[in-house]
Amino acid sequence: MKVVLDRSKCTGLGICESVASSFFEVDDNGDLLVHKEDVGEDELASVEDAVNSCPTEALRIVRASDSAGCPVSS
Fold first, then answer.
1. Residue 68 pLDDT level (bands cut at 50, 70, 90)
2. C-alpha 68: how far from its chain's center?
3. Residue 28 to residue 21: CA distance in whole angstroms
4. Within 10 Å of residue 35's Cβ, how many Cβ atoms?
5. 22 — phi, psi (to 5°)?
6. In 3-state terms, what secondary structure has residue 19?
């Protein structure tokens, strides 16, 4: 599974960073950095929490083999 960022929706609030800091970081310019895209089973719960906490719905989780990018979680 992979985490996908829609930069056009992201406002850099940093809620995702506070939930899953090993994946997300807001830089000094207010831009979200995704440190790693691949989500392991042991990391899925925290990344799902980060995705679900995003108020702008800029994040989603997709199956790596899903070329259509259908979300695994909302």
1. low
2. 17
3. 15
4. 12
5. -75, -15
6. helix
Phi, psi of 49 (to 5 degrees): -60, -40
User: Any residues with CB less than 8 A from the CB of 4 and at least 6 apart, and which?
Assistant: 37, 59, 60, 61, 62, 69
Residue 20: strand, helix, or coil = coil
| 20, 27, 29, 35, 72 from 45: Cα distances, Å | 10, 24, 28, 17, 12
CB contact at 8 A, 47 and 69: no
Q: Position 73: which residue type?
A: S
At 36-67, the pLDDT tens digits run 999 999 999 999 999 999 999 999 999 866 54
Please give the single-letter amino acid code of residue 37.
Answer: E
pTM of the model: 0.81
Express as a percent the part of the chain with pLDDT over 70. Answer: 85
